[in-house]
Amino acid sequence: MDTPTVASAQILRMRNPMTDLSRFLAATTASGKIPGVALATLRAGTKGMEHYSGIRGAHDRAVVDAATVFEAASLTKPVVAFIALQLAEEGLLDLQRPLFDICGDYVPGDAASRRITAFHVLTHTSGLPNIVRVEAPLRTYFNPGERFSYGSSAFAWLQRAMETVGARSLESLARARVFEPLGMLRSSLEWQERFAGNHAQGHEWEGQPVPKRRVATALASWSLLTTASDYMGFVQHVLASRGLAAESYRHWFAPRVNTRQGDDAEDLHGRNPPDPNIAWGLGWGLEPAQGCFFHWGNSPGFRALVLANRVTQDAVVWFANSARGLRLVHAVAPEAVPGAHPAIAWLRIGRL
């Protein structure tokens, strides 16, 4: 028998890419680099492989399974964008109207902030910082709409506006418009005691456990708790263009502004040039040349990423209870959503 060449070995691997990916994830969690991973895929719009590996955390060494609830961090934002677009379709939320006119002041004494709209928040062009800290207090750093700088803090103002026009809490809006219609039975923007028996705990770079947060009130920028299967149900819904009119989908995924580099994609002072390969739509990061959309999640001890191709209808989402979790992308993305992905370089994701 002929000895297999490198090329033939690659062909064999390509025949069962998901099998190889399962082995890689199992080996990674067994090594201790990442305690636990939950991953789900779509292939041509149909739910494909799901992989669960490792442990839930230092608090519970039981294995991660399909019901394990993870912190989704900023993967919350596309869900909030979906609800905002529904409210816009119904004439309740004007994406171009200043949020100040809808629900009052958010940055007292900052005249420029009074021009910020829902459109600015969803495209990360509000001029507000990502998080409020000593070196980046809550104020506008550039005129709304001028350029991109990832700004999570603005989502609190958008949330207030959505709750005002929707006449209910964000959690209630999400439950009625997303979680219940899509069968996302283990998802919430607020901690639920029903999650207590099977949830993941975060771990920092060297494995130190992070105290579990139990968020009592929904936060539009990061508080989603969910499973890989539940979130993939949302992505499948999006790829099938359900829940919104065709025109809304066109607006949702139209490239609005090119992104810029910076820590956590924040570039308050415009020190970095625009990236020609990455743009932002209304709540999604975009790879326009590839027809892909994405978002990443980063909270203490947790990392998450969703990536989908609107043309091929392939998609992947994973949650990891480790600060190293994004580093899975180099092995996962080529197998789950084939093709070049400039977002990986833009996010400056290192290797395991």
UniProtKB/TrEMBL annotation:
Kindly state which keywords UniProt assigns to this record, in alphabetical order: Hydrolase
Molecular-function GO terms, alphabetical: hydrolase activity
Q: Among its keywords, does the record have Hydrolase?
A: yes
Name the Gene3D superfamilies for this protein.
Answer: DD-peptidase/beta-lactamase superfamily
What range(s) does the Beta-lactamase-related domain occupy? 23-325
What is the protein name for this chain? Class A beta-lactamase-related serine hydrolase
Species classification: Bacteria, Pseudomonadati, Pseudomonadota, Betaproteobacteria, Burkholderiales
